[in-house]
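In the lab's daily routine, each protein ends up as an entry in a very long ledger. A line of letters takes care of the sequence, but it says nothing directly about the fold. The three-dimensional part falls to structure tokens, numbers that each stand for a local backbone shape. The outcome of that step, for a single protein, is printed below.
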Amino acid sequence: MSRRMVIAGNWKMNKTPSETRAFIREFAPLAAGAEHEVLLCVPAIDILPAVEAARGTNIQIGAENMYYEESGAYTGEISPDMLTDAGATHVIIGHSERREYFAETNETVNKKVLKALEHGLIPVVCCGETLTQREQGITVDWIRQQIKIAFLGVSADEAKKTIIAYEPIWAIGTGKVATSEQAEEVCGAIRALIAEIYDAETADAIRILYGGSVKPSNAAELFTQPDIDGGLVGGASLKTDFKDIIFWK
């Protein structure tokens, strides 16, 4: 099965609404004509201006997080309806920074995945290991657990719509990057697990991204691996040079 690649940016806590508008207006012509899907996941306050600035372009806008309830007394949280009404199409779920700093668990990730799918949002489900876990040789075991719980209650048809992002925690923002062999090993293991949970057709359909210090100089080596279908890019997506990752060929 031919999977269309996704090159996604995760802005984290960067750029104001006015900076967002200015960036996308400058960046959109540079990203025009890309054969891959181009996605920018931005802070909640930036979603509306990002959607407005990206209208008529090939850039899709996603969120960085959401809550798993429809509405209620959850001060500071964002509901799936708020995201879809604002024009977001995707949402990052379970990023390692959310797990580390905001006590997200595999169980809350699962609730968010189910709720996102219920509202037509495409979840970008994150997984990844620490350096200690890699050194202990439990990377694949750890990732399998994260994915198994994240996809509890998700049907095969729903799973095909999701995106999985493998981000080794030790490579996020550190300048270190997993070798293409290391990244492919884990992404291949994730695809094998999806086939185990569902079937080969679902495993062939789901798109698996690599994230962790992706830059123009290593994009081609990573993205030509058979089980890597693009990247979730952090700091490098905040600059217009992000185009060099999008047009990595």
User: Anything to note?
Assistant: The chain has one domain: 6-246. The two ends are 21 Å apart (CA to CA).
